[in-house]
Design goal:
- The chain starts with a strand and ends in an 8-residue tail after the last helix.
- The chain has 2 domains: about 170 residues, Glycogen Phosphorylase B (Rossmann fold, 3-Layer(aba) Sandwich); about 140 residues, Rossmann fold (3-Layer(aba) Sandwich), CATH 3.40.50.
- The chain is an alpha/beta fold.
Length: about 400
């Protein structure tokens, strides 16, 4: 029985591509690993999953360097219709993602592809089970640290086990933050490769402003672990002072209705929450914002991750009120407006920003933060690891004549 479905685009003459892709021509730095087979393995739907930006964009950039890129993904409607990976990438679909059969199917997909490297993003039960007993050369990538979250006892034990298993299984370890890089070295003696997120918004015309007046914009999904509560409390504090700056929250998530009720019950008529926005509409909201708001507390969760939206904000070139936490400061440099992560800190900064009729654009120097550069970092790390192994395997010259 065939357990997977294959989707692979070719030229009209049936030939496969070697080299350039839709994201630009291959880097001038020809790489010793050009032509390798590199497979990203994932589980679940890619629908509005922030981590899939990393898999998608790294794949595109690697393909542009002549790497034979492939994906193993669950066969769910969104993945079939909106995966958005490089058009030349091979995609294998796991046909039964909700049953135990998926484990055998994922393994079968990997045997079909025969990759030189298997890239796994974060420790996950389904992915680790698919790798147990395999001879795959694993590139383990952490863009968060689930093992350090505050979780119920059983789930906490599971996350710690998976984290330890993947660290030991990895042939090469990649992390998205300097914090993770430092902690992995200090706690486990593991030298990892620092590969943060990068600018990901596609170029769009600025178009007309979606706002009739100066507006502050915040973007992100409403999950309990994130820090949007700071902004709602800041808006409430400003209202008690007779200040009602226009604030728009973009995003959805499990807490969306809770915060809509907060806004409604407290009469915050200056606050709107339209839900999820993407594409040209998202760009217009960011580009025409009077100021962008990004609260982020200094927690292990936030230090370990690299919020991709920090690079989107840098691309928009508008002033950003935020906090000096981890990768945010590295994305915005010294050009961010850094405040205390509290309702008072944000309320004060918002009030000050709205005293100005016009705030100039800011050049955050986002140009070097490309997925091409991130792909080069991975290829360089793979090549260096291979050289290191080769040197260790070379026979030691005899000290005797």
């Amino acid at each position: 029985m065939r357990w997977f479905h294959r989707s692979c685009r070719t030229h009209s003459d049936g030939s496969r591509r070697s080299g350039a892709s839709g994201v630009g021509a291959r880097s001038e730095r020809e790489h010793s690993l050009t032509g390798i087979r590199y497979c990203f393995v994932s589980s679940g739907s890619w629908y509005r999953h922030a981590g899939t930006v990393r898999l998608r964009e790294l794949g595109r950039a690697l393909a542009a360097r002549g790497v034979d890129v492939s994906y193993v993904v669950d066969d769910v409607p969104h993945n079939r219709e909106h995966l958005g990976v490089d058009p030349w990438a091979q995609v294998e679909y796991v046909a039964h993602p909700h049953s135990l059969r998926q484990l055998a199917e994922r393994r079968a997909s990997l045997r079909q592809i025969r990759p030189d490297y298997v890239h796994v993003l974060d420790p996950a039960v389904k992915l680790c089970l698919a790798l147990i007993g395999s001879k795959s050369t694993v590139v383990a990538d952490w863009d968060e640290w689930p093992a350090k979250r505050e979780l119920p006892a059983l789930r906490n034990a599971r996350e710690k086990f998976l984290d330890r298993w993947l660290r030991r299984r990895a042939w090469l370890t990649i992390v998205c933050s300097r914090y993770l890089q430092e902690r992995f070295l200090e706690e486990y003696g593991i030298e990892s490769v620092y590969v943060p997120y990068a600018a990901y918004l596609r170029p769009e015309p600025d178009g007309e402003s979606p706002f009739a007046e100066h507006t502050a914009v915040a973007m992100g999904n409403f999950y309990p672990a994130f820090d949007h509560d700071v902004l709602f409390e800041a808006a409430l504090l400003l209202s008690t002072q007779g200040l009602t700056p226009r604030i728009v929250f973009l995003g959805d998530g499990p807490d969306l209705e809770r915060w809509r009720a907060f806004v409604r019950d407290r009469g915050l008529v200056n606050v709107s929450m339209p839900g999820y926005v993407s594409g040209s509409e998202l760009w217009r909201h960011l580009r025409h914002a009077h100021v962008i708001l990004f609260p982020i507390r200094r927690t292990v969760l936030n230090l370990a991750r690299c919020p991709s939206k920090a690079f989107a904000y840098a691309q928009a070139r508008r002033p950003v009120i935020t906090n000096r936490v981890g990768e945010v400061e590295r994305a915005l440099g010294d050009r961010g407006i850094y405040v205390d992560c509290s309702d008072v800190g944000f309320a004060s900064a918002i009030a000050k920003a709205f005293e100005s009729k016009w705030l100039p654009d800011i050049d955050y120097g986002v140009e070097p933060h490309t997925w091409a550069a991130r792909a080069d970092a991975i290829l360089d790390a793979l090549a260096e690891r291979r050289r290191s192994e080769h040197h260790r395997q070379e026979p030691t010259p005899s000290s005797h004549a």
